[in-house]
Amino acid sequence: MTTHRTKILILGSGPAGATAAIYTARANLKPILVHGMQPGGQMTITTDVENYPGFAEAIQGPWLMEQMEKQAVHVGATLIADTILEVDFSKRPFTLKGDSGDTYIADVVIISTGAQAKWLGLPTEEKYQGYGVSGCATCDGFFFRGKEVLVIGGGNTAVEEALFLTNFATKVTVIHRRDSFRAEKVMQERLFKHPKVEVIWDSALEEVLGTEDPRGVTGAKIKNLKTGKITELKADGIFIAIGHKPNTDIFKDTGLEMDKDGYLVTKPGTPKTAIKGVFAAGDVQDKTYRQAVTAAGTGCMAALDAARLLEEEVA
């Protein structure tokens, strides 16, 4: 059991956390970054990345996160493989406890624990994640130019992703387990009017079909929930659009403000939370954009604000 004392503790090692570590380390604040459950965040399950600035060719998500971590360590950050289980934000310095049994005491905490796309839990869905199965149309839609795709879901996320995908795909088929959408009416009307979109009601994804070598999606088995009939559909890509869940469970009852979906609430235009000295960056507080580059941007903002707070308190 070790007690780690630091001015700045960063929770989560996706683009937001890694960027916060780079900036605070360069400010000579010697930050500690705790990896969390998924080192590197959602980028580690993203294969080709074409929309991160600075790279002419597609790069691999895991490689990008590896480079960010190496950069953070190079400029003076300490990375620890642990997962925070307990948080006490009632007084500063803050006290946190990890799964390892270690205790972390910090003057400032930057929360960048991210969010996770909700999945259906099908074995074939997991098998083809990153190989035609995606949880993010704005991340991966570009790869499906001139192809046919399926979108699974019926809320705002599904309708928005389906409409976005019409910019690339020749056909977008939305599969929904009910006979009506939960999405906003205006969005629904746009969807129904779009010539590239078809909707299949009362149905669910039963199985993802694909090839082994090279691994890739070729279609899906769709089950009609009223009749039980199984239909095979051809598809080059399948987008699971049933929402996201922010990784904020451990922050309940800590004094941090959350919205109805569990995202951390920050003061408009800043990464500042309701608790002085606690900042939130990346997908844990951003339910709108959810991009690596925007996460990195808010990680930078959190780092600069954290450094400014510590400077003011010393002055």
Write up what this structure looks like.
With 315 residues, the protein is α/β, with parallel strands linked by helices. The chain contains seven helices and 19 strands. The strands form five sheets. Strands 1, 2, 5, 6, 7, 8 and 19 form a seven-stranded mixed sheet that branches. Helix 1 runs parallel beside helix 2, helix 1 packs parallel to helix 7 and helix 5 runs parallel beside helix 6.
Coarse morphology: elongated
Label the structural class. alpha/beta
Q: Give me the number of helical elements.
A: 7
Q: Unreliable stretches, pLDDT < 50, 5 or more residues? A: none
- How can the largest sheet be summarized? 7 strands, mixed
Number of E-state strands: 19
Question: What descriptors fit this protein?
Answer:
315 residues; alpha/beta; seven-stranded mixed sheet; five-stranded parallel sheet
Q: What's the layout of helices and strands?
A:
Layout: E1 3-11, H1 15-26, E2 32-34, E3 48-49, E4 59-60, H2 61-74, E5 78-80, E6 84-88, E7 94-98, E8 103-111, E9 115-117, H3 123-127, E10 133-134, H4 137-140, E11 148-152, H5 156-165, E12 171-175, H6 185-193, E13 197-200, E14 203-211, E15 216-224, E16 230-234, E17 237-240, E18 244-246, E19 278-280, H7 292-314
Parallel strand pairs: 1-2, 1-8, 2-5, 8-19, 10-17, 11-12, 11-17, 12-13
Antiparallel strand pairs: 3-4, 6-7, 7-8, 9-18, 14-15, 15-16
Write a concise synopsis of the structure shown.
With 315 residues, the chain is of the alpha/beta class. The protein is built from seven helices and 19 strands. The longest helix is centred in the C-terminal third of the chain and has 23 residues, at 292-314.
